[in-house]
Amino acid sequence: MPRETRFGSLAHFEKGGVQVINDDPRNYAFSNLFEVASKAEPYEKVAVGKNLKYVLEAIRAEGTSPWYAASHDEAAIVMDGEIEIRLVKLQEKIVADDHEGTTILEGAPKGQKMGHIVARRGHMALLPKGAAYQFHAALPGVILLQTIGGDLTAQRWKDICQS
Amino acid sequence: MSESKPQGVNDYGYRQFYLGSYSFARDEYFAHISWPGGSHMISVDRFLRALMRDVAWNFFYGTVNFDEVFGTTNHYGTVDVFAGLYNGGYRAQNRQFVETLNGDAVRSTFAAILEDWTNEGFDPFAAPEETGTPFGAKHGSNLGAVRRNRVVAQRMVGLKNDTPLRSDATGNPVNRQFSDVDQGEPEVHAEPGFEDEVHAFNFFAYLSRSDVTWNPSITSAVKNSLLCPTTEEYMLPIIHGNDRVEWFVQLSDEINWDVQDRETGAPRARVVMKPGDVAAMPADIRHQGYSPKRSMLLVWENNDSTLPELYASKKLKPNPVDF
């Protein structure tokens, strides 16, 4: 018999947890991305997963973000809300090839408009290498970003994880 | 010399197989595995479900324990086929048996077993409620089901020249337990000339149309960072032993994980994951998941080929972050 599929949101999330038998719960770095986003500043990039240099960041989308770029692809999954993603093809290389992670741009980027995407919960968008991008959310939403740890990545594991 | 020597069929209609020093036989209910000095039986439904993953995943990352005794460890070119190697009781009495074999030879033999031992109407990738019985004497086959592999996107699903999206037209209807998942696509407004770069798709709808369970498939890649979502129902048919840290993000519904010591199987923790929960699986554990309702799980892997040696030599700590 079909049952309702349950997703989380900023307005409603329920956490599970680590039930220790013979271990330290900190080994699991257990958190909830909606809880993290609910306590974050708009467009603060808080790592909720770290696999050596790679990270998954929980981002509270609210209002209009700065413009960003990276020397590599990034992928954004909208976990809650409706988010517009604006894309510009950079006229000049702004981020060096060996600089990994998200870079914030000063002001608006120079280049040709590539287009925009309006994504809602469950949608995944490519943030392509060589492009600048900006998020806009009229109401608070949540993005899970697949990227590489960089200058903007906030790591506060003690605050967000079960211990 | 071939390591695989299929011979004639037994009284139940099934072929017997040989791999290195191992032999594999099945009857109506069980897979029988023998090696010099030992033997083991596994219920054939459990065996075929585990074998399906081992073949489709090309041995995945680390160790695929079919149960507490038998399994494989991937060395990415060669494969350890073992009995009792990660069982505290066997190890205490030095009763374990392990052979390191060519990975292609193991995979081709396992694929042949899967094709011969899977009867018509049984799909080892499907949830039990969705498929027929694996038991009984040989009756037909299900080659279309057992020849499926995991999806491996190079950059992102749906991009030009990459893994295609799923739809009714591609033979991927919405699963019965995801009938309420929104199928609306994002609005993609690409300027002329950028149609191949401005890209988005309904990721949850894509997952809702998966016809397999417990099969992490690559949806997007950022260098060696691979998002490998999967849909889960009933229980993970293997016990996965990590050779690196992997991460789970629970996208929908709930999964409970039993976590054990990778070497001995001693219990370490239970991890209960609800929508939005994020948890690491350390590099020195094994885990098995239970999903009462079909759920969406994001498995996140680091595909760096140097990691198994770095973790095995303790140059890297098994936990991902210190705090």
Please describe what this structure looks like.
The complex is a heterodimer of chains A (163) and B (323). Chain A has 163 residues and is mainly beta. Chain A has a single domain, classed as Jelly Rolls, CATH 2.60.120. Chain A has helices at 33-38, 157-160, and strands at 17-20, 31-32, 45-51, 54-64, 68-69, 74-80, 82-90, 103-104, 111-120, 123-127, 131-148, 153-154. In chain A, strands 3, 4, 5, 6, 7, 8, 9, 10, 11 and 12 form a ten-stranded mixed β-sheet that branches. The longest helix of chain A is centred in the N-terminal third of the chain and has 6 residues, at 33-38. Chain B is globular, with a radius of gyration of 20 Å. In chain B, helix 1 packs across helix 3 (103-117). Chain B has 323 residues and is of the alpha+beta class. Chain B starts with 16 loop residues before the first strand and ends in an 11-residue tail after the last helix. In chain B, strands 5, 6, 7, 8, 11, 12, 13, 14, 15, 16, 17 and 18 form a twelve-stranded antiparallel β-sheet that branches. In chain B, strands 1-2-3-4 form a four-stranded antiparallel β-sheet. Chain B has two domains: 17-146, no CATH class; 176-312, Jelly Rolls. Chain B has helices at residues 44-56, 88-92, 103-117, 143-146, 203-208, 307-312, and strands spanning 17-19, 22-26, 30-35, 38-43, 63-65, 70-74, 78-83, 97-102, 187-190, 200-202, 220-222, 225-235, 239-241, 246-250, 255-261, 267-273, 277-281, 285-302.
